[in-house]
Design brief:
alpha/beta
Length: 140
């Protein structure tokens, strides 16, 4: 069973996928999309789901530092509902607070140039979201 991890932004969606055993997450790509063109975004995700034979999606939920959900979190939940309905696939929401910051720090520590970081940061954040989810399941 493969699982997708998605880091959803207003212009990009970072995508990661698990291995078949559900142990590790690997970055796949960064999709460019417009929130106002939901159908186009759904189609791009659907193509990847079929390609990787994914059974579940973990959506990074951008909570505020105090644990509340703001406007951005609601937009992610709306996308999740649309994905669940259009693709008939289970959606899990995962607290993604500081995942992008952690990804940025990791890339800086790896001496990745600013230009290259910009290209991979969303994919890396999706990978971190998915890996945290997978790790939580292995501790059960």
């Amino acid at each position: 069973m493969r699982v997708f991890g998605l880091d959803v932004g207003s212009k990009t969606i970072g995508v990661a996928v698990s291995d078949e055993l559900g142990w590790t997450a690997q970055g796949v790509t960064t999709l460019h999309w417009e929130e106002s063109q939901l159908e186009e975004g759904l189609q791009k995700i659907k193509e990847l789901l079929l390609q990787y034979q994914v059974d579940k999606i973990v959506l990074g939920l951008p909570k505020n530092m105090d644990g509340t959900e703001g406007e951005r979190a609601q937009k992610v939940r709306n996308l999740g509902k649309a994905l669940e309905k259009a693709l008939e696939i289970p959606i899990v929401y995962w607290d993604e607070r500081l995942s992008t910051v952690a990804a940025q720090k990791m890339l800086i520590a790896g001496d990745v140039s600013r230009k290259k970081r910009k290209k991979v940061i969303d994919k890396m954040a999706a990978c971190m979201i998915l890996q945290n989810y997978l790790d939580s399941k292995s501790n059960v």
